[in-house]
Amino acid sequence: MENFNILVVDDIALNITAVEAALDGPGINLITALSGNEALGALLDNKIDLVLLDVQMPDMDGFEVAELMRAKEATRSIPIIFITAISKEQQYVFKGYSLGAVDYLFKPVDPDVLRCKVNVFTRLHRQQTIIEEKVGELETANKELALYADARDRQLQIKDRFLSHVSHELRTPLTAIHQFVTIILDGLAGDINSEQRRYLEIVLKNAGQLKHMIGDLLDITREVSGKLTVRATRIFIEEVVAETLQTLEKISAEKLISLSAQIPSTLPAVYADAARLRQILTNLIENGIKFTGEKGEITLRAGFFAEDPAFIFLQVSDTGCGIEPEDKEAIFQRLYQSESTIENSRSGLGLGLHICKTLVERQGGRIWLTSKVGRGSSFFFTLPIYSVEGLLRPILKESRARGGDLIVITLEARVPEAIKNNENIDDILTEVFLIITRCIHPYEDEDFIMPRSQRLPYGEVFSIIASTNHKGAEAIKKRVTEKLRRAKGLQDFRLEVCATHKMLEPCSAGKDMRLEDFVKNRAAEIEKIINNEMAERRACS
Ligand code: ADP
Hints:
The protein has helices spanning 13-23, 36-45, 62-71, 90-98, 111-185, 194-224, 237-254, 274-290, 352-362, 388-401, 425-440, 470-486, 515-540, and strands at residues 4-9, 28-33, 50-54, 80-84, 101-106, 233-235, 258-262, 270-272, 297-304, 311-318, 367-372, 376-384, 407-414, 447-449, 459-466, 496-503. By secondary structure, it is of the alpha/beta class. The relative contact order is 0.06. It binds adenosine-5'-diphosphate. Residues 287-288, 291, 318, 320-321, 323, 331, 336-338, 341, 345, 348-354, 377 line the site of adenosine-5'-diphosphate.
């Protein structure tokens, strides 16, 4: 049974006796005080659950005792019931409540009422104390967790920095190994016999594997630090597939594995990063080669994605060992390697598929697989079809919500005659594109930079679509040209940057049109303006 400590404070001993008689019973332990001072002492010495406090007392009255109790953390929340014979006016009652009393009773007090009230308030107070204790424990636990999370984040950062540093450092000696072995293999350092050639080819192959793993490690650290870049442009997958197969022909031939591709020439351009697509395909095909026995087959297919007309799919199939159903999701996790393939996986880190997944998703697609153990696996991924409409949909939706103003800003970056033949021109113009992208990035759904188009003899033209008015367009032009003028990497090249803008003719039925029709209409207008701007500039150059 719970035991409650009740402090009864009254300067008249007879009153205390009356309260004692009323509250006499199991579970209640009465502590008495004949003055305010005595009461404060009792509060210090005992864990009190409730105070029954007489208002009128000589020296220190009940209100003063309550004030002193409220001033101290340890006694602040103990419930007080004031008991008075004379201070019955409302102002005293209010004062009592304002000092935190839970009740205000008048003498003579009905013993039953007193017992009930004491019962309720002591229990309430106990529960409140328990809740407060629990809240305190939770707060402490939360603080500890936050400290732990901070420490863990710091450790992860140190680990990632270390990984990134080590990977960079490993690359330099590896490049030297690769270069010198190639020099010997090419016969530039004198003749070598067939056995030496065979050994050096093994060295080269292993150096290649090491390079691949270091590349994966670097990509993972970039992913963690948010620096894994994907630069989508308008590309045709046929070219990328052909290049990739060419580089992998040798290692598939070593295992007598046939490597073929069926890419319909009718496939439209996609909006993707060619280098990243090559990386994804290389990874999937290399896995295929690794997990397929001699004389197996690896086939690459592509086509329109039946589930979503805005995408195409690519498929890499092998006739290898296959993947257990329970591993189908897990193998895309960082560092995961299936138990059943652990022998073959030795030359990998379990990062490749995770990187593939990240890269596919960053380009707007998704990746999955089907497999039959012992028969082979097919990895599928999708990429968005390049469409001005698809690219512009978010900003066109935004423009409609804002009343329809749309601007095409044309930025012309001219390369001065003196550096026209500089071999870094492409890098310089890429830097320009990146600066513009970063510049408009914070306003993602209001401004959009179109994918890069063909270069002109004198430089490149970039188009920004903005859901804004003339004033907004002026502000964007100023911001971008200023950023380009100040960019450290560009200052030596003295590019001439010229910005103009054109507002789209308002779409009269804009608000009443279906969103799809509105997007189609605006996208067509934008394409027309961009094409005209390009045509004019081509004619001038
Ligand atoms: P790793 O570098 O170890 O190959 P990946 O992330 O590329 O790392 O692959 C993770 C695991 O998925 C592999 O270790 C293997 O168990 C399984 N796996 C990947 N591709 C295939 C495949 N084509 N056939 C069978 N198992 C595969």
